[in-house]
Structures are given as structure tokens and as C-alpha cells.
What we know:
Blueprint: H1 3-8, H2 31-36, H3 40-44, H4 47-51, H5 64-97, H6 122-134, H7 137-141, E1 145-149, E2 153-154, H8 157-164, E3 187-191, E4 200-202, E5 209-215, E6 219-224, E7 226-229, E8 234-236, E9 241-245, E10 248-253, E11 256-259, E12 273-274, E13 281-286, H9 299-311, E14 314-315, E15 319-323, H10 330-349, H11 352-373, H12 380-415
Antiparallel strand pairs: 1-15, 2-14, 3-12, 3-13, 4-11, 4-12, 5-10, 5-11, 6-9, 6-10, 7-8, 7-9
Amino acid sequence: MNLVQTRLGLRPFAVSTALVVGGLAVTSCMSTTSSNSGSDGDTQGCPEFQTSGATIDANIKVDAKVHAFMQASASLRSITDKVKVDVKNACVKVATDLGAQDTWSTIGDKDESIANENRTGACDAARARIVAIMESDAGKRANFALVVSRGKCQADFQAQVDCEAGCTAKTKCDSGKVEERCQPGQLSVQCSEKCKAQSYCEGRVDVEANCEGKCEAECRGSCQGTCTDANGQISENNANCNGKCSGMCTGKCTGRCQVEASAGIECGASVKCKGSCTSTYTDPVCETTFTPPKCEIDQACFASCRTSTAAKAKCDAPTVKLACDTQTSSDVQKLVATINANLGPLFATAEEHGESVVQIGKDLVASGSAVLHASGDLDVKSLACATAAAQAAEHSAGTLQVAANAGAEVTESCSTHAK
């Protein structure tokens, strides 16, 4: 079993019940690289890769496919560097705020400091304290309701196409349209009429969506079900709900609303529809990674473009609020304060963009294997650089999965104990 197989098999990927998916982090040329990237001989043969940042020097004298793969690996490394810090810092803050014993600092900067099988990582400690407080007698009386206004990530399709134009292809490449290269259900558009049933009106805290269906955030209007307000007060079938609704919300939603009206619904001014419309639409953007174009294209180059596009995706941070009766205990008060302040980055790890980047990491490892499989055609320098980039991609992919699992487990601990 190789490094990636071992690291990606740490734990099954946990998906929060309040979410759809899964965000991340890792190494540069620091201690994590030196301890996991292989022999010194491999890395010393390509010092340019080890010292590079997110962009590989175009003048390095290596095979074109190897250069494309190096760039993809460097882009992935840049993404993972940032999110590893985000995820770990968020977990450390939650764990510390809730009085957890510091079991992670002695582990250093290894991935295990985030989460590990012994449950001594920062996210392990955060999750344990969250569960303990929410399952306590005071927690059971608090009537928790988790309100999530999702942050959106939009990949730049034109940047992807422009990058692919530089890839070597045996035939003329038709880049296609953004709709054709976006995974089903991940297209966000402005409907000219209505957003179809089972699609989503993507409301936000600052731009509320019209809602006739399941509201993930705060419902302002009629709630057919249980309405839990910001103070944990519960009411049933409230015509003037201003809180989390467990059933059908008819009115406004400060987050994503799954449309249940059979005829669809107009999402509202400046509110996009994720899924499909009853009529025409404008301004299509994809909230995931792009599939390959319908043409013959070098996979290493495509992987580089896709990773680079993901690294530059425009992402809004999600807003998370834990509503409840904070008078039940001081621990509940601390929990609400730290969840509201710190859970956003962890929810981001369980969102579509997070899972997409995890998959990019896995695909990039496969691309690296293909490049190395053709090593008989590479000169010494190209082989050394391909090896260094492949080792870095393996380490990045493993760290991405660790962070995604950890973030999802922490958010799941909240969502499963709340309405």
C-alpha cells in the first residue's frame, strides 16, 4: 500500500447532514514535505520545484508534460497550504474556547495534529467537547438549531478554457459551453422566470431568497413544522416564524431554500437558482470543477488547468449561527460564541468546493502516475522533477482528505445534535 492509499484510507469521508459535501490543506517545502515526500535524492534532483511557490518557472528545462504536471502539483500545494491552516486554527479555537485539554501541540505541524486515529488532534478535541456540551442536561434543554448560510465558490470557466488552449492536442479542441462541462445540479443561474421544483434558490444573509420549501438558514414567514428562534424558543406551525424551520418555509430564507412548490418559484431579485429553471436563464456559473472538453487533450495539462482554476475560484465564506437558549449553562454560552465565530471554515470543508478539491488531488495523483509510467521517455532532469511533483501531489492529496474528514466530523457533531 502506497502513501496515498494509506493516507486516504484513514477514515470514511463524513458528510454533515446539513451539507452536501466536503476543504483542506497541506505542505510546501516544510517539515511535512521532508518527512513524507520520499528520499533526499529525489527532491535534490529538482530543487526548482521544492523552492517554487504556486507558479513554476516557465524556463525550467524539462519535458512539457512534466512541466504541466509540476504546475498542477504546485497549485494544489498552494491550496492545501492555506486550508490546512484554516481548518486547524478553527479547530484549535473551538477546542480551546470549550476547555479541551491540549493534546495536539506536541504533534507539531503533522497532519495528525488536525485529526488522528487516537483522537488527539485539534479537530478531535473540538468535536468531543461539542458533543459533550450538546448531550449534557443543559444542552438537551437548550433547543439547539443550526442556521447555515452557505458560501458559494464559482470557478472561472473562461480561465479554464484559456489555459486549455495552451495544451497540446492531436485534434482541434472544442472547449464547449460552461453548461456542458459542469456536473449535473452544480450550475447556478439567474432564471428569467421560475426556479424549478427540487432546485435551490441561493439566498444569503444580505440577499434573502423567496422560499417555498426547506430553508437551511433562517425562515422569515410561515413555518409548517417546528420553528426555533434565536433564543431557543420553540413553536409549532408558526405563521410568523423568525428562526430555523424544520418543515416547509413559506416566505424568505437567509440561506439556500430547496424549492418544493410543484410549479417552481421566483427566487427574487439578485438571487440565483442552483439546478434548473422553468424557462430561459442568464449568467451561468459552475459551483464545482469542470469536466474535460470533448476532444483529445493531454491529461497532465488538463489536470494543471483544473487545479489552477480551482486555486483561483472565488469563494464566499459561509455564515454559521447556533440558535438556542443560552441561559441553560455557561458551557452552552461558550459553545454558541465559538461556533458562531469559528465554524465557518469547517463548514467550507464540507461544501462542494471542498469535495471537488479533494477529488482534484486524487485525480492529480493518478495523472502523476501516468507521467512516471512513461519515465522511459524522460531525461534525467525531467524524471527528477516529475518524481518530486508526484510525491508532493501524494502528500497534498492525503492532507486534503484528512482535513476534509476532520472538518466534516466537527460540523456533523453540531448538525446531528440540532434541529
